[in-house]
Amino acid sequence: MTPARSLRPGSQAVGAAAFLIFVAAAPAFVIYQAWALRHEERAAWTVAGPDCPTVQPAAELFGPQGPRTFSYGGAQFSRRFGHASCAAPQDGGLIPGETFHVCQFNGPAALAVATSKGVIYFKPGVGRPATVTIRGGEASCVVGGWFRT
Predict the structure, then answer these.
(1) Pair 104, 34: CB distance under 8 Å
(2) Which residues of the chain register pLDDT less than 50?
(3) Tell me: the pLDDT tens digits for 102-114?
(4) What is the pLDDT of residue 37?
(5) Strand-pair partners of 141
(6) What is the pTM of this model?
(7) In what order do the strands lie in the sheet with 68-72?
């Protein structure tokens, strides 16, 4: 009979330490992934560009067929032409912050945005993309965006 081999005393401690590091790192990795996805979405939907011109409401703003209207995030959006894509990214770092709403339009010509603070009319121009962001009930618009259809 051969005697059983015993592990060196230090190898058990190293194995236990490696296991504890793995157990501690797994939640940190999940948290980092969630933060990175939130940061990436917020960056993708934050569009820089010149402000959309604001105009007074007029009957001809949306043409004889009238506006194409939809509701999203507690606001009502009306456009003359094109398509829209919307999202609700979150502000904040590791701790999620407030959600804001943003819609991109691929060539609306004219927009009307109704929120709890009132209605505002934008005229980015024919064939020009526009991005409307709503934070705290206030709508803002920039000419630009990556949404195309």
Answers:
(1) no
(2) none
(3) 999 999 999 999 9
(4) 80
(5) 132
(6) 0.75
(7) 68-72, 75-79, 109-115, 118-125
Q: Interior CA angle at 15 toward 12 and 18, to 5°?
A: 150
Structure tokens, 133: 């962001």
**CA gap 59, 23 in Å, rounded:** 64
Rama region for 89: left / alpha / beta (φ>0; ψ in -120 to 50; rest): beta
| 51 backbone dihedrals φ, ψ, rounded to 5° | -60, 145
Contact 61, 126 (CB under 8 A): no
Torsion of Cα atoms, 14 then 15 then 16 then 22, to 10° = 110
CA distances from 104 to 20, 32, 53 (A): 46, 28, 16
- Between the two ends of the chain, the Cα-to-Cα distance in Å is 78
Which one-letter amino acid corresponds to residue 82? Answer: G
